[in-house]
């Protein structure tokens, strides 16, 4: 209940800040009206800009903001709300052009005023920002260059829009109105300073070193990190962190990965990474002794937040990583609650942590159901996908009382949730983790 109330508070505050520019317009002297459509377009522009400015907070990994929802939900909201914000800003320009055909000179860079040029440039920056984010793979942009351009375009889009407002000057007259915008801009700047300066400085004081690089099944590597000069990090099983490898925590190259080690061992942490992209394909070449920086922990995909008499885990591919952390932690806690794991993989030889999972059955009340889509000829277990039929054959009689944790590709998660609904299981008791942050 506390998380629900806390989340409702943040949602209310978000919408209050979004509409605050419209409310501030009513304070003090109100400039004479210039027609309904023009005023409506200005309203769209102010709301859209306020939403864009708040994106600095949504992507800043502020724990107080992300804790009620989970950071994956916050990032998903960030992506969706960016489209709405861009739509509002586009409507601002579109309505003005349509309702003022005599002012089409606005879009002529030669004859346009400085205020118009700033607004046009800000709109173009925001359009590029969204298009490159949605079509990053289409344009074959690598993660690091995209991330740098993403930040620069965001700053340019918001900054140029503020210049546009200042040069127009029509709606920022008076001490209160100007003070509001100055305060709003200052909070955005403080958010950027926290993300790019304050947080890296904190990470600089708590470095790690790679102690070991372990080869796992399924083209997966485990980095074992030891704290260098500090006591380490406490986390809940199933959580994740952003990892930077190299000399500086100010570097732009960082990626989110789940912890795979037990949460009961803070003297070292394990992060298991599957070879999937440009950065991950080189994990096996990391040399022990390499400096590492860890920003975390984050995430709500943890049993510590969802108490239950029994747990059911559904993992696909690299989705086993947070699950193995949970199982290792439960074994260290000597927890004897019933556990059921559905583990889907394309090939039997690619089942990561296969040997350890079988060993964990000795110290846990754990049943494992391997589901192999391309099994060997002598395979006698479940085949194909983790379907409702497969789950129905293995779920316990008290399936309604269990808490469910799903981690893996998004398509798999969707199919598993559909299967659970077919089996009459409410999704209120289903937790899922998505790695699609960018």
What characteristics describe this protein?
11 helices, alpha/beta, 44% helix, 6-stranded parallel beta sheet, 6-stranded antiparallel beta sheet, 12 strands, 16% strand, 438 residues
Question: What does the secondary structure layout of this molecule look like, with pairings?
Answer:
Blueprint: H1 2-24, H2 36-58, H3 63-66, H4 71-99, H5 114-134, H6 143-168, H7 175-204, E1 208-216, E2 220-227, E3 240-245, E4 255-258, E5 269-274, E6 291-298, E7 311-316, H8 320-332, E8 339-345, H9 354-360, E9 366-372, E10 382-383, H10 388-392, E11 403-407, H11 410-422, E12 430-433
Parallel strand pairs: 7-8, 7-11, 8-9, 9-10, 11-12
Antiparallel strand pairs: 1-2, 1-6, 2-5, 3-4, 3-6
Helix pairs in contact: 1-2, 2-4, 2-7, 4-5, 5-6
Explain what you see:
The chain is of the alpha/beta class and 438 residues long. The chain is 44% helix and 16% strand. The chain contains 11 helices and 12 strands. The strands form 2 sheets. It has a 6-stranded antiparallel β-sheet. The relative contact order is 0.09. The mean pLDDT is 88.
* Count of DSSP H/I helices: 11
Give the strand content.
15-25%
Q: Give me the secondary-structure category.
A: alpha/beta
Quaternary state of this entry equals single chain
Q: In sequence order, what are the helices and strands, one letter per element?
A: HHHHHHHEEEEEEEHEHEEHEHE
What sort of overall outline do the alpha carbons produce when their principal axes are compared? elongated
**How helical, in percent, are the residues?**
40-55%
Largest sheet: 6 strands, antiparallel
Terminal-residue CA separation = 30 Å
Count every beta strand, where a strand is a DSSP E run of 2 or more residues.
12
Q: Strand order of the main beta sheet, please?
A: 4-3-6-1-2-5
Rg over CA atoms: 25 Å
The whole-number mean of residue pLDDT values reads 88
Instruction: Enumerate the spans where pLDDT stays under 50 for 5 or more consecutive residues.
Output: none
């Amino acid at each position: 209940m506390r998380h629900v109330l806390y989340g409702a508070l943040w949602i209310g505050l978000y919408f209050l800040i979004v509409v605050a520019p419209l409310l501030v317009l009513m304070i003090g002297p109100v400039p004479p009206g210039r027609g309904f459509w023009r005023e409506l377009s200005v309203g769209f522009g102010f709301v859209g800009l306020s939403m864009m400015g708040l994106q600095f907070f949504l992507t800043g990994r502020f724990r107080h903001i992300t804790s009620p929802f989970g950071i994956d939900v916050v990032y998903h909201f960030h992506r969706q709300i960016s489209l709405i914000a861009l739509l509002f800003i586009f409507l601002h320009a579109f309505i003005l052009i349509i309702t003022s055909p005599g002012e089409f000179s606005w879009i002529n860079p030669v004859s346009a005023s400085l205020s118009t040029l700033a607004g046009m440039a800000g709109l173009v920056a925001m359009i590029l920002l969204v298009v490159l984010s949605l079509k990053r793979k289409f344009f074959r942009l690598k993660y690091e260059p995209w991330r740098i351009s993403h930040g620069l375009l965001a700053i340019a889009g918001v900054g140029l829009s503020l210049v546009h407002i200042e040069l127009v000057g029509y709606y920022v007259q008076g001490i209160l109105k100007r003070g509001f915008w100055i305060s709003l801009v200052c909070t955005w700047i403080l958010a950027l300073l926290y993300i790019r300066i304050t947080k890296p400085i904190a990470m600089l004081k708590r470095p790690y070193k790679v102690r070991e690089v372990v080869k796992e099944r399924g083209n997966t590597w485990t980095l074992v990190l030891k704290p260098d000069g500090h006591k380490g990090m406490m986390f809940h099983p199933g959580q994740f962190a952003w990892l930077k490898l190299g000399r500086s925590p100010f570097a732009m190259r960082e990626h989110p990965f789940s912890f795979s080690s037990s949460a009961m061992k803070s003297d070292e942490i394990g992060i298991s990474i599957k070879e999937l992209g440009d950065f991950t394909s080189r994990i096996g070449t990391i040399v022990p002794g390499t400096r590492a920086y860890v920003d975390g922990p984050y995430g709500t995909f943890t049993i510590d937040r969802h108490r239950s008499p029994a747990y059911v885990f559904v993992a696909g591919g690299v989705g086993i990583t947070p699950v193995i952390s949970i199982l290792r932690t439960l074994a260290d806690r000597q927890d004897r609650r019933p556990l059921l794991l559905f583990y889907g993989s394309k090939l039997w030889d690619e089942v990561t942590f296969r040997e350890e999972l079988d060993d964990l059955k000795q110290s846990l009340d754990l049943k494992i159901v391997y589901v192999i889509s391309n099994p060997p000829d002598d395979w006698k277990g479940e085949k194909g996908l983790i379907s409702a039929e497969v789950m129905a054959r293995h779920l316990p009689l008290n399936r309604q009382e269990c808490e469910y944790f799903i981690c893996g590709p998004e398509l798999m998660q969707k199919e598993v949730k559909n299967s659970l609904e077919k089996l009459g299981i409410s999704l209120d008791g289903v937790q899922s983790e998505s790695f699609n942050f960018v």
